[in-house]
Amino acid sequence: MKMKDTSGNEEALKGDPSFFLTVGQLLDFIEKFNIPRDSKVLYQRIEDHYFDKSWKVVKKEGFGFCSMSKVNEDIDLGNTSFGKKYSEEALEKSKEQYIPAFSPVKYKGDDNLYIDSHY
Predict the structure, then answer these.
(1) Within 10 Å of residue 104's Cβ, how many Cβ atoms?
(2) Spans of all domains in the chain
(3) Which residues contact 94 (CB under 8 A, 6 or more apart)?
(4) pLDDT tens-digit profile, the chain (119 residues)
(5) For the chain, how big is the Rg over CA atoms in Å?
């Protein structure tokens, strides 16, 4: 699914570019380890304390944000059946949050693709 990019918050992508996984590196890894096209892609779980301290996220206006914004627009056009408008704070909290991937991982005897978010 391709979403419109309007958020512009990319502070999480600043820093040493050698720490970020690129599409080229990922494709090379998939080819090198012959990972099947129907393999599952799993992403490493991250603890909240990383974000409470210093990690930044890239925020994008995904499905939830767009749905809530549409309700606000409908209310602005006079359709009151939706109740009340979402606040700016609620809209901001509804944005999808992403962090850069660090590295792909291949486990012996497992054809799934695992992606680590830190070392």
Answers:
(1) 20
(2) 19-116
(3) 64, 65, 68, 86
(4) 555 554 556 666 666 666 788 999 999 999 999 999 999 999 988 888 888 877 888 889 999 999 999 999 999 999 878 789 999 999 999 999 888 888 999 999 999 999 998 76
(5) 19
